[in-house]
Specification:
The chain has about 280 residues and is an alpha/beta fold. Helices cover about 35% and strands about 25% of the residues.
Length: about 280
């Protein structure tokens, strides 16, 4: 088994209350050769203290003025020393053998340039005091066989925490994309390495979608999603690896309908669909 080094990139903003779980899941990795680059995106809480309490020499802490997760990840990419890059959102967790199994798969397939692993998803609903009041059954996101086209066409949706790729200066995150930046990056990776994709069917990553707290996806509006589709469509107009123009047009129409149905109460509309099936 190749003893390659991995760089784990963790952008965070005012999440000292939950960040420790993400960091703990990194320190528990059964595979040793890693570094974790925590980019504090202008936090005003105890994020720095939380990181330093671990006394982990493989943690690298970087502070920047609030600029968003894409800029934070790009800052970390410039400092990354690993052969491969992995990502962990500051409110999610790795399984303890996450890096072990990624390294195993890469050792048996030298052509891999990027890929994803399976992940478990847990939806949680909180009240105004941040007490959990409901949750949807945790489930695995994917089956045993996921093709690159499934991700390009978004018939399978992944979180950037399951994403890994080679360390290359050509790979950066696009700050113009406010949401769905993981999918936008995947479209560019697919263009750069059309035969370099690899899927690991093991659920090695735990993704939390928290409603009533500060989860990015949980609180974004339908208009925000729609604008992201428009931005990504424009950015990838000339790409040979992307959904069709009609596909994008249909997505935009879909969000027109959702905007109309939700009457400006987007988050409540999604909460009803997820937690009450209405």
């Amino acid at each position: 088994m190749t003893n390659r080094k991995y760089s784990i990139i963790i952008p965070t903003y005012n999440r000292a209350y939950i960040l420790w779980k993400a960091l703990l899941s990194v320190t528990k990795q059964t595979y040793y050769n890693w570094e974790a680059i925590i980019v504090d995106d202008g936090s005003t809480d105890d994020t720095y203290k939380q990181v330093k309490e671990f006394k982990e020499v493989r943690f690298k802490y970087i502070y920047q003025n609030n600029s968003g997760p894409c800029v934070a990840r790009n800052v970390a990419l410039e400092k990354a020393e690993g052969e491969f890059i992995c990502y962990l959102d500051s409110d999610d967790e790795f399984r303890e053998d996450y890096l072990y199994y990624i390294n195993e798969h890469l050792s048996f397939n030298q052509l891999v340039k990027f890929g994803i692993c399976n992940q478990n998803v847990r939806w949680e609903l909180y009240d105004k005091s941040y007490n959990i009041i409901s949750y949807a059954q945790e489930s695995s996101s994917f089956g045993d066989d996921v093709k690159l086209d499934h991700l390009v066409q978004r018939t399978k949706r992944f979180n950037c925490g399951g994403l890994f790729h080679i360390n290359s200066p050509k790979i950066t995150w696009e700050p113009k994309v406010k949401h769905m930046h993981d999918w936008e990056l995947l479209l560019r990776l697919a263009s750069m390495f059309p035969k370099g994709f690899h899927y690991i069917p093991l659920s090695l990553y735990k993704y939390y979608s928290r409603y009533g707290k500060d989860g990015r996806c949980a609180n974004v509006t339908y208009r925000d999603w729609q604008n992201c589709y428009k931005t990504i469509w424009k950015l990838h107009k000339k790409s040979f690896v992307r959904p069709s123009d009609d596909w994008f047009k249909n997505k935009i129409k879909k969000y027109d309908l959702l905007i109309s149905k939700s009457h400006g109460k987007d988050v409540k509309h999604r909460i009803n669909k997820i937690f009450t099936n209405t």
